[in-house]
Design brief:
Layout: H1 26-40, H2 43-50, H3 63-79, H4 82-96, H5 114-136, H6 141-150, H7 153-156, H8 169-180, H9 187-197, H10 204-207, H11 211-220, H12 224-230, H13 236-253, H14 258-261, H15 265-277
Helix pairs in contact: 1-5, 3-15, 5-13
């Protein structure tokens, strides 16, 4: 669902790194649902969402509010100040205290589990690199390393200590492979994913024209074993078509001014700061 764009003016040294040059709203369009599916395919995360008693945060019941909360989290984590992150962490903690398994839960979970939060942050990072690589092409290794180091904020804006973030991209690749192998989809979570893929949370007049396309491109952004468990088919032709479409979108979107490319993250960050100043709820 996130956030990385290629360097646009030659080689940029890490000392010149400005995160706003790498925040790109097109990732939110392409990668959102695939990223949610990857996160929730780790059973404790999936059941934490499926059984959550915080109904105001349910994307199926309140899609606009939930989308705003997620986009705000990403904008605060990557574009916010330390004070912004502390304020939003406190707000998230207020909701997470209600998210824990009960005696009847088939899987044990707790929203404050740092290992589960690390997995969520890892999905956000991996998804951003995958999506934006398809949209804009590969980036310089120095920039990739610098962005990776910066991406620890995706975890530390929750409860993940910086020391838990894998030391470098090679260490992350090892972490990713090991933990992706632990993901699976049971019937309960599959039913939830099918509703997401078919956009069941959206009113039919808006859903019907877009749902099939949404299911198709989301399928292409999932790891193969999750496609298999969801019964989704994907061909080499599909892969070529998706990459061509995403690259074409990058040609257009990449020419926009930075303030446009940063949308909607710049807007949700400004809204969060406005709410905080006025003492309004942040989520």
């Amino acid at each position: 669902m996130t956030i990385l764009a290629r360097a646009r003016s030659g080689r940029t040294e890490p000392a010149e790194f400005d995160i706003r040059d790498y925040v790109d709203g097109s990732a939110a369009f392409w990668g959102a649902t695939a990223n949610v599916i990857m996160q929730l395919s780790l059973a404790p995360v999936g059941y934490g969402v499926a059984e959550s008693r915080v109904h105001s945060g349910s994307i199926m019941k309140h899609p606009v509010k939930r989308t705003r909360t997620t986009l705000t989290y990403l904008s605060v984590a990557l574009m916010g100040t330390d004070a912004d992150r502390a304020a939003y962490r406190t707000a998230i903690n207020g909701a997470h205290k209600y998210v824990h398994s009960t005696a009847a839960s088939p899987v044990k979970y707790n929203a404050f589990d740092k290992n589960l939060q690390l997995w969520v942050a890892a999905c956000l990072y991996w998804g951003s690199v995958d999506v934006m690589g398809r949209v804009y092409g590969p980036i310089d290794d120095d920039i990739a390393d610098t962005f990776y180091e910066y991406a620890h904020h995706l975890g530390t804006t929750l409860q993940v200590p910086k020391a838990m973030w894998p030391a470098d991209r090679a260490a992350f690749d090892a972490y990713w492979a090991a933990n992706l192998a632990l993901t699976s989809v049971d019937p309960t979570i599959k039913a939830y994913f099918d509703d997401l893929l078919d956009l069941k949370m959206i009113n039919p007049p808006l859903r019907l024209p877009f749902a099939r396309f949404h299911r198709w491109f989301t399928t292409g952004l999932l790891p193969q074993h999750l496609r298999d468990e969801l019964g989704l088919t994907w061909t080499e032709r599909d892969e070529r078509r998706l990459n061509q479409l995403m690259r074409a979108s990058g040609v257009v979107w990449g020419r926009m001014p930075r303030v446009v490319r940063n949308f909607p993250f710049n807007v949700t960050l400004a809204d969060m700061r406005r709410r905080h100043r006025r003492g309004k709820p942040l989520i």
